[in-house]
Design goal:
This protein is an all-alpha fold. 60% of the residues lie in helices and 0% in strands. It contains one helix and no strands.
């Protein structure tokens, strides 16, 4: 018997190396807690970066206004 392109040779199949009983994802396990902690840390870092960006933008605007006021005062 010759193999044709329509035969299923098993390539591309997803194989689960663990039996189903050993492959249970329980809510609240260590990996879930680590994921939550990592997510909270990432959110805190994003918040800090946003606040720092906003503060830098405000400082730049304040400096520009101060420079314009100084320029007007000298005129």
């Amino acid at each position: 018997m010759t193999s044709s392109s329509t035969d299923n040779d098993g390539q591309g199949m997803i194989v689960n190396p663990k039996p189903t009983g050993d492959n249970q994802d329980w809510d609240g396990d260590d990996a879930d807690r680590a994921d939550r902690l990592r997510f909270e840390e990432e959110q805190a870092m994003i918040r800090e970066q946003s606040e720092a960006h906003a503060a830098a933008k405000q400082a730049q605007a304040d400096a520009k206004r101060a420079a314009e006021a100084e320029k007007k005062a000298r005129s």
